[in-house]
Every structure is written in structure tokens, then in C-alpha cells.
Amino acid sequence: MNNSVLVVGSVALDDIETISGSRNDVVGGSAIYFSFAGSFFSNIQVVGVAGKDFPDETIDSMQDRNIDTTGIQLQEGKTFKWGGKYHEDMNGRDTLYTHLNVFEDFSPQIPAEFRKTPFVFLGNIQPDLQLKVLEQVQEPRFVALDTMNLWINEQRDQLLEVIKKIDMLVINQTELADLTDEDNLINGIKYLHEKLKIKYIIIKIGEYGAYISAAEKRNKTQHLMFFSPAFPVPFTIDPTGAGDSFAGGFMGYLAKTGELSFKNMKMALVYGNIMGSFSVQDFSVDKLLSIDQDEIENRYSRLRQLVTI
Asked: What pLDDT does 91 receive?
């Protein structure tokens, strides 16, 4: 069974400032966080673009973890650069600058050996680029998509075109309200299922956890729903890649098992939350580089104990 996951997203170098300190030129980007988190479960194939300043040791670390970096285009110039300062409560942040650099002209080119990958994750990039990816892959078994308020508000028509071709949408509560004009979570989910015909939806609730909903109705008014709390951690150092690490854990586990039942997706949601909980405990991907499978399973067992009556 092919248990690989193809991820297409950003590759970045970040300048981060939090109450715990600051770091400059640390590795970031949605595709990077996703890849390291997902690699604990499945083979990851990554497509993105980086400048010649992107560290060779990161590429080496990815390859050591069965992450296929064939699809990372290394171009003359500088890597996409983002700088952010987090508020004291870590829930809000201010973007200090965004320098697209080589990412400005990024056009995803899916290597021939990636095009039949069964599980595809479209990271938070322009909808037109996400559509280009779908035009190149061949009959994927499961496609999930991440997006953001910028694309919802400024490229809505293009985003809706992509949404027609996916199986799962991954967004947060604010994005849900912007996309559906519904402030109520349940009404927003219902809109996505019934108006936009999305089969599976994940709503990220930040430090509190995540919901997953499936279009399979158990009665006339309700869809299948499940909520997993986040794993409680004693401190947060850098929340930058939490959502992308969550997505990597979710998709990695789903691909590893190869089972698309709602019961299995609930398991994947829990593992996604666990990978997000590790990610926030150090700057950049440093924590994801220092953990092992036993630590992941330990958190899984502890989270089950927290929520089981």
C-alpha cells in the first residue's frame, strides 16, 4: 500500500519574537512544519521553492526522515522571509514584514514520481496555485486544503473553484465566519457541507483543540461531529507552526492507516493535536527534531485518559 503524502506549500526563513525570546532566520513555512510532523507516520513528498540561503542541514534532516525533497526548487535569490511578534498571551501576533523573494514567482511543478501520490495536502498558498497542483496530480484518493482570510476575502471565486475539487477543508473559526458569513460554528459547518458540498471539515480552535465534521448525516439535522481538545502543555515558546504541524500529523496518520472511515479520522485528529502540542514547545521545528515515536504515543495515551469517562 502506498502511504505517501504530497504536500505543496511555503518554505521560509522566519524572524520570531515571543515572550520567551527571539530567533532570527529560523526554518519555517507550511510545507516544512507539515513535513517534519507527518514524517513520524508516513513518507512525505514536498513541493516548494527556496533560495540558495536555505540551510543545507535542513534539507539533510528532511531526507534523513524519509521526506522526499525532490520537489523543492532551489533558485538564485533569497528564501521567503516572514517576521512576526507574538502578543503576551500567544494568541495574537503582529506581522512585522513579509518578503516573498523567490516565492513571489512560485509555480508548483509536481515531479512525475509524485503525481500518483494517493494523499495530497494543499498548503496555504494562492488558490490559483492550488488549482495548478490538482491539474498535475492523477486521481488522488484524498485531497485536503488549507486556506486563510486573505484568499477568502480577496480571491473568493478562485478559492471556491478549488474547493469543488477537494475532500476536506481545514480552517480556523475566524476563517469559517469569513467564508460562510456565519458566526455560529454549527451553522458555519452546515453551510460548508450543504452549500459548498464539502464532505469533511476540520475547524481549528487554536490552543483549545479542533473539530472534525463529516457530511454523513446520522439524522435529519446533524452531521457526524467529533471534538478533540489540544494536549495541555505547561508552556508555549513559539506557536508559529502549530497548525501546519497539526495538519502533518493528521494527514500522516490517515495515510499510514489508509482508512477513510470517520472513526479513523477521529484518531487522526487526536494525533494532529499531539503534533501541534510538540511544535509550540520550541522555536521553529526544533522540538519536532528532538522527539521520538514513544513520546508521541505517550501523549496519545495521556490525552485519551483526559477525555475518557
From this structure: 82
Q: What is the pLDDT of residues 165-176, one digit of tens each?
A: 999 999 999 999
Pairing status of strand 168-172 against strand 142-146:
parallel
Report the percent of the chain where pLDDT is more than 90: 92
**For residue 33, is pLDDT > 60?**
yes
Q: How many domains does the chain have?
A: 1
- Domain coverage including residue 201: 5-307
With bands split at pLDDT 50, 70 and 90, how would you rate the model's confidence at 73?
very high
Nearest of 166, 148, 160, 271 to residue 215 by alpha carbon:
166
Average pLDDT over residues 19-37: 97
Concatenated DSSP letters of the chain = ----EEEE---EEEEEEETTEEEEEEEE-HHHHHHHHHTTTS-EEEEEEEETTS-HHHHHHHHHTTEEEEEEEEESS--EEEEEEE-TTSS-EEEEEEE-GGGGG------GGGTT-SEEEE-SS-HHHHHHHHHHS-S-SEEEEE--HHHHHHSHHHHHHHHTT-SEEEEEHHHHHHHHS--SHHHHHHHHHHTS--SEEEEE-GGGEEEEEEEEESSSS-EEEEEEEPPP-S--S--TTHHHHHHHHHHHHHHHH----HHHHHHHHHHHHHHHHHHTTSSTTHHHHH--HHHHHHHHHHHHHHH--
Per-residue HEC secondary structure of 39-93 comes to: CCCCCEEEEEEEECCCCHHHHHHHHHCCEEEEEEEEECCCCEEEEEEECCCCCCE
The CATH number assigned to the domain holding 197 equals 3.40.1190.20
Q: Judge whether residue 220 has pLDDT over 70.
A: no
Specify the pTM: 0.96
What's the gap between Cα 269 and its chain centre? Answer: 12
